[in-house]
Amino acid sequence: MLALVAVQEGVSLLVRSGRARAFLTRQLRSSFGRDVEVRQFSASLFPSPRLDAYGVSVGEDPAFGQEYFLRAERLSAGLRWIGLLRGRFELGTLQLERPSLILVRDQEGRWNLERWLPTATMTLTAAANSGARAPSAYHLQRIDVNDGRVNFKLGDNKASVAFLQVEGTVEQTAIGRWSLDLTAEPWRSGVPLQLAGTVRVRGDVAGTSARLQPAHFQISWAKCSLADVFRLIGGSDFGVRGLFAAEASAASTNALLPGNKNVAPGDWTFAVRARASGIHRWDLTERDDNPRVGIRINGRWNPGAGTMDADEIAVESPHSNLRGTASLKNVAESSLEVRMDSAGIQAADLLDWYRAFRPGVAEEIRATQYFTGAANFRGWPLSLNELAFSSPGGRWTVPGFIGPVEVRAMRGGTQKQKLVIEPFGVNIPTGKTVSSSAKIRPPSGNVSGGSVVGATANLSLVHDFDAKAGGIRIEGQAARIQDIFGLANAFGRPLQNGWELRGQATADLRWDWSAGSVPAWNGRADVVQATLQVAGLNQPVQLENLRAEWRNAVRKFTLGKVVAFGATWSGSVEQPRILPSDFGETEIAPWTFQLQADHLDAAELDRWIGPRARPGWLQRLLPPALGGRSAPEPRSIVLRRIRASGDLRVDELTIEKIKLKQFRTQAKLDALKLSMRNVQAQWSGGQVTGSADAAFSSRPLYDIAASFDRISIAQTPWLAHLSDRLAGTADGRLELHATGIGREALLGGLDGKGEIHLANVELRGWDVAGTMALGEWKTGTSRWTAGAGTFHLSDGGFDLNSLRLASPSGEFLLKGSVSFSEDTDLTAESHLTGRNARAENTVRFMQISGPLAGPKVSLEKATAQQPGD
Fold first, then answer.
1. Phi, psi torsion values for 121, nearest 5 degrees
2. pTM for the complete prediction?
3. How far apart are CA 399 and CA 479, in angstroms?
């Protein structure tokens, strides 16, 4: 025992010496066939000879680069006693801890691994000559791998994909035959993986110098998320979630898989099975009806000829299947062709795929329709070369309708490098809320099931592969356009957000696309006898006749007859072409308009725009979020995003008692801020010009600056009852500021000022100068050639600072106030000139009070002026 212990300690000390280290390094180089560097050795003889090497680095073949071939933190090799007794260094079992292997493939398609493991031809020849089992060249029987890593290189380029946590064994089961059983986790640089799954490789293979033949592999990939599959393949997240699993088998011609035919020398046969389940969009919850699909591929691969043929391709889902073949040639120029000879697709499967990637699809939708066809794809990425399909039609049950949506027979295919779907009809039934009198029968044919047709449409598609352009055409009519919107809502495509349209419509529209341009609508739609309810408006807009036109992303609405804001409108509204990148998601591109109304009343505007919207309707317009009732957006959310500018004409505009005729302005609306410039109007026989600004916030603000010229005093609304006694014209200007909603609030927040100039004023039936001179009422006519004054407006009413009227006989000064309830409190002062000016009998003051329609007039004689007066 002492001798054995001494030998053990002696061996441990011996391997640490310089000569022993150099000797062992040379032996490892001979065993690996590569340059080897070792940081430290240790050895033991009992119970079996074992050599441990730490910090091992195996060099690469210069033909494959200058990087290392294999590195390991620890290499533990079992040594054969027979070899040691014969003075030979023979490895039995090799254990690698935390190894890192780089597999390199050169431009000729050869791998750096091929010159490492022993060849099958050498061992088989040795066995035949000896008549017994011959040992391998280096007697390496087994390789155990623990926590390894495998990297890949194509020439000088390092692949971004690798395998981590490699575990398993490589064992020589017979002369020149190796059995593999390895597991690993796939990895890709720069991409975080959550559930990459486990890849397991099992099989039998010959020495790699014999190009692995004969060989038989079985590869499985399980417990993997579909998102990580796409991350590993494409390097990015495509927003798809689900589970993935796959199995594959590959065999050389000397170890054929059963069932394969037409196998040529040098061919490898392979079979692939892949399954994906629970497929859905990343931001949608998983459902029981999420799509699942399985793929089965059987074929042959000849690496020497550079060809691969898939004799069978089958894609299967719960109700559909596609079957075909594929071929790949990679000799001079790569070419890939996939042929789907038979395809049978149920619309129910298409609906499941649509629901998995589109939120808001109604649960009650059911589809009964079947498609058959064949297709041929070529190139990489695959492009459609030939296609032919057809369907006898079907029925789609959609909630909210009295019957199913009928899809007529359809067919399509490729014609002269164009994909063509011939026109086919779609009959949409009437919604369940329709009355019996509104039911409309289809124009021709009978609809199965006897459902009432509310809308009919013909759809077709053309796409030119050479020009990379095409379009979808929709021709149809609807007795209730709300049925179209209801159908879109059921499929998770709400077209109404903050507005609701009801009525009749006919349309001829095309959704066109082309390379280098943004897809856009083209065509027209006519709406008649319709109502439009818009968020922020308290009453619906009546669309008696409206045409909408789309031309290359330019939208134009021509108003034949539209009733809104208490007026009848005509004209046009147009939205010019705007690139989507210029605005945010909630931005609406600016509009231009040319509008004309017959009559517009400010009181009607307040009833339409004021915050008195009926409760509940907005909640029905805006879609709920997160599966429940969402908090509604502000009622003015749609109007808040609108930006519009153009010319506005109103035949008659009424603001309280002010009636403006032939109103013209250049208006601009931006974020609920209205500005009007170059305002022109006719009022009381004269002309009014100016500008106005309004901010429609929770507390609206109004600013008006106006000038008036040659206004007839007798025609003003406050003096209209004196039109048979009063004459004269007025010029002046006005600045007005108001806040609030409604008449009372506006008058309470009113603030303004202005000035006035009068000319040729005549008051018939009352001689004011004579009355003030005599101290008693005197009939006659009062005339003033000119006059000027200033005034203020406040929450109380009209304050006349001073109004000085001049005539040849004197001056007349008037000041005081008139409330908005038309109560007067005025003081008049007369200054006589000429022969009649006698201070002792002149009446200088007159007091006017009471209602403006019948004021009370009192006269006061002049008194001696007191100091301080």
1. -65, -40
2. 0.75
3. 19
